[in-house]
Amino acid sequence: MTTERITPQTPATGRSTQPFSARRRWTALAVLVLAVLLVAVDATVLFLAIPFISESLHPSATQLLWIGDSYSFVLAGLLVSMGSLSDRIGRRRLLLIGTAAFGAASVLAAYAPGAGWLIAARALLGVAGATIMPSTLSLIRNLFPDERERAKAIGIWGAAATAGAAAGPLLGGLVLEHFWWGSVFLINIPLVILLLVLGRQLLPESRDPHAGVWDLPSVGLSLVGVIGVVYAVKEAAVGAAGQPAVIAAGVLGVLCLTWFVRRQLRLPVPLLDVRLFADRRFTAAALGSLIALIGLAGVIFFLSQYFQLVRGYSPLRAGLADMPAFAGSVAGGLIAAWLARRCGQRAAFAGGLLAMGLGLGALGWVHADTSYLLIAVVFLVTGVAEGAVYALSTTMVLNSAPKEKAGAAGAVSETAYELGTALGIALVGSVLAAVYRSGLVLPAGVTGPAAADARDSLGGAVQTAGTLPPATGDALRHSAREAFTHGMNLAAVLSGALLIGAAALVWALLRGRRRNAAGADTAGADTAPEADAAPETAADPLPDAAGELTKSAA
Predict the structure, then answer these.
(1) Computed from CA positions of residues 184, 185, 186, 190, in that sequence, does the dihedral angle turn out positive or negative?
(2) Helix (H) or strand (E) holding 218
(3) Per residue in 473-530, pLDDT tens?
(4) Residue 477 carries which DSSP code?
(5) Contact criterion met (CB below 8 Å) for 483 and 494
(6) CA atoms of 405 and 388, how far apart (whole Å)
(7) Is residue 249 within 8 Å of 368, Cβ to Cβ?
């Protein structure tokens, strides 16, 4: 490990603060990994608890949808705003505030007496999560001024995110074997306490000294715009596109986002500098990660139902079945920097998207009796590619943005991730649902509410089958499982094609790039100048954490 020491300077005086050593940088990164784990675990831990929540709280179908979606909706809608806020009030400060709020919202969710309470608590978790993720990325951007070191750090950060997502179903399965559904939210509490203690002691503070005022109208426009558009897309995906409320939400969302962009172009200090998208590397990274998650998220989400309801796995076994994909993602995140140096960011990023597409497409041939070993191999390959793509896209976004705008730039990366996840579940789910309903053959005697429940989802069909005579129930289960598997196959093939298209798009956007002697990508003659080509400035101080604590105590 290098022993160089970074000596930040305050923009006001230009005097050097206490040097920030390599050891301190990597120790601070370990704390940021805890923060990523906190948010990533919560994003997936709920998946296996849905059947238990349905049994306990008796939510309606709409309420059940919002229990799953309120977190990602609010998180996606506030990421850019909170990333910009962290640039203004301090990244460490906002991260610690968000961590405390995350812990409080987790307790509220764990002891929710009804579906409405749980939906509100999940929304509060989304608000808190939106303050944490951009802060972690912007702190990394300022902790590691060297581009190669930063790429390694982001690889570790991305590996932690996928490890947390892997731990969610596994921990959820373990807890649900012994405790009530609310305990899956209490998993967060130990991480919250540890992060609050270590974060205050080990993380440096940094901010943009010229950030200006936080523009509240822009915050409202971005939140309403993102939520309106995502809600309209999700409702349209389930056949409600013609409803007045859905049309109104979509129109309102588009208008708000358009107004948001126009306002950012006029503001002297915008909430999000939309001119960053003029850099093709920034645009390619954001679009690539968005499309990747649209294709990946829906397939992975419905594979959890495949394992439990088609293959008959327990929640814990279903969580373990997903592990090759998540283990591969961790490995992919760790080797992303090496791949970029060896192949160049263009080839590594586009190649990762292509490998993801081929892996997802291969799931189009999975059936109820397919050997799990074959599924595990596909999961592993797809996971490695996804981890590399995630780390590479994040690195490209941060390297394309000025250092003082790291919070807002990191928020763009995370927004693409969250929007891709939400849209992927909606769009892939619509394909699967349509094929499922058209392929389901109801046995004689299954009519009325029972038939409606069976057509609604595979879970509804399995539950309905348990109330029928054995022969009729077995016939319904077999038909429902076959119809669901066929829908999942088609969705996987379409998702794979989408990822292959994303690979071609990224390859085109990053054309004309070449690698320098250090292995980093540089712009060719036909490429826009790189945002990070200018030398690092001292616009963002990195004071020693002990010094910050001393000043706070004073």
Answers:
(1) positive
(2) helix 216-237
(3) 888 888 888 888 888 888 888 889 989 998 998 898 888 655 443 344 444 433 333 3
(4) H
(5) no
(6) 24
(7) no
Task: Determine the Cα angle at 389 with ends 378 and 542, to 5°.
Answer: 140
3-state class (DSSP) for residue 14: coil
223 Cα distance to chain centroid: 17
Q: Distances from the Cα of 283 to the Cαs of 265, 352, 397, 506, in angstroms?
A: 17, 17, 8, 9
Distance of alpha carbon 512 from the chain centroid: 30
SS3 assignment, position 391: helix
Backbone φ and ψ of 11, nearest 5°? -70, -25
Write out the two tokens for 223.
Answer: 């939140």
Angle between helices 216-237 and 61-89 (to 10 degrees): 150
Which amino acid, one-letter code, is at 400? S
Alpha helices in 46-146 (DSSP H): 50-57, 61-89, 91-110, 115-143
Of residues 33, 28, 24, the one with CA closest to residue 1: 24
Q: Which of 159, 185, 208 is nearest to 540 (CA)?
A: 208
pLDDT in tens, 379-415: 899 888 888 887 888 778 777 766 666 656 666 766 6
Q: Which residues contact 376 (CB under 8 A, 6 or more apart)?
A: 321, 324
Give the CA radius of gyration of the chain: 23
Q: How far apart are CA 83 and CA 87, in angstroms?
A: 7
The per-residue pLDDT for range 161-203, each reduced to its tens digit, is 766 766 676 777 777 777 778 888 888 888 889 888 888 887 8
User: Can you tell me the distance from the alpha carbon of 49 to that of 177, in angstroms, rounded to the nearest whole number?
Assistant: 11
Indicate the pTM of the whole model: 0.67
